[in-house]
Design goal:
Length: about 450
């Protein structure tokens, strides 16, 4: 071991520090997550001394002055919606996603839009060369304005460049490639990721620069590195979607400046990402006509209603144990709803295979799609198609009752806008609805009543 360095064990999941290896982390209770790293004792002591010598003084709430939050538009309304209304100066945003999903393309398009608004932008890449970035930029479009590129991984050099250029927006692609010379471990390790994020956070809060960080994800789909990385930043965004499909979903899982329920929908094209202004129409494209086991349901993502097609296929099983498969929703929820149908409606589906799919590859777990799943299963079981101009939403309980859901007016308005003529909804939601001219409302109290009407 090098002189002046000590072996310390870090948990890769939560960043818990220990002087010895342990099988289970006391912080997050995960197994086999500890890795050994060498830490410079002098650097650690110096950092601790700085923390002790802090001269910050506490203040009362009355002494704190509130300033109106100024947001900067990114030029992409879908991204602004997920961020809570725009980019907050001095904030730190972490963007995670699978390899090749489009994280770098998204941020490069944001840089293009900001540069067109005469906002100074500095794009720092530790994974690609300047030539590779220019090739992607030529595919996206013509770049004008104050956009500067830098290929660097040394954080001290990056700090000096930011102090000299004084940009308003900084993009780091990616945090796993950055390294701090004071930390002896390799780039991408727990210590390097944590120290690099802390340095960038200090730059963002100290100089008011907005920093976007690209983070790799593990095979479980979470941002690689210590969990403390997500706690340090202001906003955590996940870029999701099937890499073999054209659509992408930007979802906020943490946001100190807005809601985490909003999503942004994008479509990947040859010239970059394009926003999908009407996701409902996009998800329903290609819906079959007069096909059994297909019904349209309405789900809410934040304040945005999204119509989606729920497909079900119920057939007799050739084995002793029937198969139950769900794509796009929770399989346990599907088993629960099928048990409700067997108990309350006496439908003998215990010897049938059941396959439930949400068309388009999107994933929804809101309870409001329960009624749609139930109607799709019964439609396939009895081989009777449902009117293609009918939409439904509602939560189904264990006794077969159809329970209320949030924001029924927005759901009905979205269905009316897309040309649906009939809407089946919980009876208890009728009181909060306003004018519903142009669409027929069918209130139901339980699943038996809903199936009899259909």
């Amino acid at each position: 071991m090098a002189k002046g360095k000590a072996a310390v064990y870090f948990c890769q999941s939560c960043g818990y520090e220990s002087s010895k290896w342990m099988g289970q982390c006391p912080g997050c209770h995960e197994w086999n997550t500890f890795v050994e790293e060498l830490v410079d004792k002098k650097t650690a002591a110096k950092a601790g001394k700085k923390q002790v010598e802090s001269k910050a003084k506490p203040q009362t709430l009355d002494a704190i002055e509130l300033r109106k939050e100024h947001r900067m538009t990114s030029g992409m309304p879908e991204l602004d919606r997920v961020l809570g209304g725009g980019i907050v100066p001095g904030s730190m945003v972490l963007v995670g996603g699978d390899p090749g999903i489009g994280k770098s393309t998204l941020l490069l398009q944001v840089c293009k839009n900001l540069a067109d608004q005469h906002v100074s932008v500095l794009y720092i890449s530790g994974e690609e060369s300047l030539q590779q970035i220019k090739i992607r930029a030529q595919r996206i479009g013509n770049f004008t304005g104050d956009l500067k590129l830098l290929c660097e991984t040394n954080l001290e050099d990056i700090r000096q460049t930011i102090d000299m250029e004084k940009p308003q927006i900084v993009v780091i692609d990616s945090i796993q490639t950055m390294y701090n010379e004071d930390v002896s471990s390799a780039p991408g390790s727990v210590s390097q990721v944590r120290e690099s994020t802390a340095t960038l956070l200090q730059i963002a809060k100290g100089s008011g620069v907005t920093v976007f960080i690209v983070g790799h994800v593990t095979k479980e789909g979470v941002v690689a590195g210590p969990r403390v990385l997500e706690h340090m930043v202001d906003t955590v965004l996940y870029f999701e979607g099937d890499r073999y499909a054209s659509y992408r979903i930007l979802r906020g899982v943490k946001n100190r400046f807005g809601s985490t329920n909003e999503i942004g929908v994008f479509e990947m094209r040859g010239d970059g990402l394009r926003e999908v202004e009407n996701p409902s129409e996009y998800m329903l494209s290609g819906k079959p006509e007069n096909a059994s086991g297909s019904v349209v349901a309405c789900s809410m993502e934040g304040t945005r209603p999204i119509l989606l097609e729920i497909q079900a296929l119920v057939c007799h099983s050739n084995f002793g144990i029937p198969r139950r498969t769900a794509a796009g929703t929770d399989a346990n929820r599907v088993n629960l709803l099928m048990a409700v149908l067997e108990k309350r409606l006496n439908l003998k589906m215990s010897e049938c295979d059941a396959y439930v799919n949400i068309a388009g590859g999107i994933r929804m777990n809101e309870p409001a799609i329960d009624l749609g799943i139930v109607l799709a299963i019964v439609s396939s079981f009895k081989n009777r198609p449902i009117d293609e101009k009918t939409i439904c939403f509602g939560e189904v309980g264990l006794s077969g009752e159809v329970r209320a859901v949030s924001m029924p007016s927005q759901r009905v308005a979205e269905a009316k806008k897309l040309g649906f003529t009939t809407c089946m909804l919980p009876r208890v939601c009728m009181d909060g609805l306003q004018s519903t001219d142009g669409i027929r409302l069918v209130p139901v109290s339980n699943v038996r009543e809903a199936i009899d009407i259909i």
